[in-house]
Write a structure and sequence with these properties.
The chain is α/β, with parallel strands linked by helices. The protein folds into two domains: 271 residues, 3-Layer(aba) Sandwich (Aldehyde Dehydrogenase, Chain A, domain 1), CATH 3.40.605.10; 180 residues, 3-Layer(aba) Sandwich (Aldehyde Dehydrogenase, Chain A, domain 2), CATH 3.40.309. The protein is 40% helix and 24% strand. The strands form six sheets. Strands 15-16-17-14-13-19-20 form a seven-stranded mixed sheet, sandwiched between helices. Strands 10-9-8-11-12-22 form a six-stranded mixed sheet, with helices on both faces. The longest helix has 22 residues. 54% of the residues are buried.
Amino acid sequence: MSDIQRNFIGGQWLASGDAAENRNPADPSDLIGVFSRGDAADATAAIAAAKAAQPHWGNGSPQLRADVLRRAGDLLLARAAEMGRLLAREEGKTLAEATGEALRAAQLFHFYAGEAVRNPGEKLASIRDGIEVEVTREPLGVVGLITPWNFPIAIPAWKTAPALAAGNAVILKPADLTPGCAHMLAQVLEEAGCPPGVFNLVMGRGSEIGAALVTHPDVSAISFTGSERVGRGIARGCAEAMKKVQLEMGGKNPMVVTARADLDLAVNACLNGAFFSTGQRCTASSRLIVEAAVHDAFAEKLVTAMRKLRLGNPLEAETQIGPVVSESQLAGNLDYVRLAAEEGCEVMGGQRLDLPGTFQSPALFINARNDMRVAREEIFGPCAALIKVADFDEALAVANDTPFGLSSGICTGSLKEAGEFKRRSKAGMVMVNLPTAGVDYHVPFGGRGASSLGGREQGRMAMDFYTAVKTAYVFAG
């Protein structure tokens, strides 16, 4: 039992009745650790601890919150290399990218340390004589955070830091596939002096822990990042329980390449957006929409670049793309590769590689149409559909023809096309001559349609979700 990495509840490291191995997807013989799998009872205990701790944390000095978050950021910065290596082993990202994600977590905690002492309100003149009006923001109370496996430290950080800065107490439920980074975050917050019960970690299955967080009356809000299917279920549960909900779900993000694009720049942007991180990003460029005038030249350049990508052990410096996160995820990817051929696409790449672990070569589905399943359903792997269109107007129409609306991009040398695309794209984030994936921590993140529901994440706007607005009237006589 001493070798099991435990849940963190009420300031104590507590074992659960079950545990699971965490193994490296690039090398299944590499056992990262054995991690507790909590259940509904553990979630209930964490909720009770959070409820008891929150009033002192939320009503106390914002300087206390700022100091804890700043120290946490300092510790994450100091441990970035260690966390980056852990992340690369448990999720499969390249070491450089994994270390960058660890550094991003530190930046997020430092940013929200400042936000903890910036809690602006308003004082307004009433329309009635002798009355003053104040508008302020207060913490919600206890917040449940449910995070995915593809960004196992950045997303827990960008949810946890603003929730704590606003004065809430937190229960973090990380993805079952990648508990290690969240476990290290709990260690960091304990070392940073976070009071017992203010931050709690409950690892395990979402079907048990997530359900307990959604239904428990003492949880005021849920912030979830994951699949659309699960997100819709959480939305229904939160609506029934009348609690605040924030969802970040899927994407089928378009990258438009116009006849006026620099094709080398466009190829690099699409290569990065579609295939880096093994395509396991909700902001990945999964639909490449290319004008007919440059389609063939673009396709040739992209296939040539794809074949030069170096796949392998993410801990090796020359590796550009690591493994798919799990056997089940790889099986789903390969099903879509077969489906693309059945739907009439010319499939370039996409095979399972003869390497230890779950490796798949990048796949390009040439001659795809926007009504094909491979162009409408999120695959969440290194697979992109290449769609030929006649002109800019058709490209924009195809780009917007999706139930999702997270990120979109355009590669063009025309300021007019760039401006028109920014204005008319039905996405929460728009990139011009940049990959659709890759965002800053100090600006809002989120989308439209089936991609997102509730307030934006990251930046100052994240504080809107984690606070409640109060309007106070005072008769001054």
